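Give me the fold.
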Amino acid sequence: MQKLLRRVHPMLNSYPGFQRWWFPPWVRYRRAQREFSAFVALYLAQRRATAHEPQDVLDLLLAARYDDGTRLSDEDIRDELVTIILAGHETTAVALSWALYEVARHPAVLARLRDELDALGPDPDPDLIAKQSYLGAVCDETLRLHTILTEIGRISRGPCELLGRQLPAGTAVGIGIGAIHQDPSLYPQPDEFRPERFIQRTYSAFEFLPFGGGHRRCLGAQLSDYEMRIVLASTVTRWEFELAGSDRDIRHNIGTGPKHGVRMRLTGRRSVAPASSSAARRDAAPVSS
């Protein structure tokens, strides 16, 4: 999977003219794709040879049927697995990296976030953590400012009009999520990290859409959001940290991410006082980074 992702070049997606046998990046991508497809085919054959009740996503894909009773092809299952791994793992990790980066850059945000979480006590229930409003605002603002999948593709099911232009059914349309998230009419000072904007107003599914939209919206959106909140809360309440350099968004494959991987340094542990205490105690014992 890593080899395949390294072979995905933005030019291959943006200009089909480069999808030719004479273009080296396309040749390397196709080779990696064939190798990954061969691996998936071998694994599917092994899984099909083992009869048991569905226990994971792959079992469900193997058992799935279309309306006419036919099975998913190996290629369909391969593509779904790529989507699950890419959209359900890498994106969450990248979002967490950016969240830590931004709270480290904004001490006031970090202090407010810790105050909210420390008030829950030293060992709060995860569901209670996930419901905290400012924590959710920090995560949402991270996904807005650092939109990982900056565009999605859709095909019109019927004729429609877009910005005065008539589009027939079957037209491929690209939705610029990154452009929507940078619209100053929706998000004043869009280049600033301001979590409070998500407390001051509620954005519609057409204004804030980090997980896409429609019936092809990311199936793992709720899990990813929950996971991001829990991991971020656990990190900021238990550790002291600082940035070890600046970073910026660049495109890696079909998505964006930090150029340098968000380099940070652990400087100490934190201990949370009981919820009745007016302030959390801090332990300055150093830890190795």
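The beta strands are 151-155, 160-162, 165-167, 172-176, 239-243, 249-251, 256-258, 264-269.
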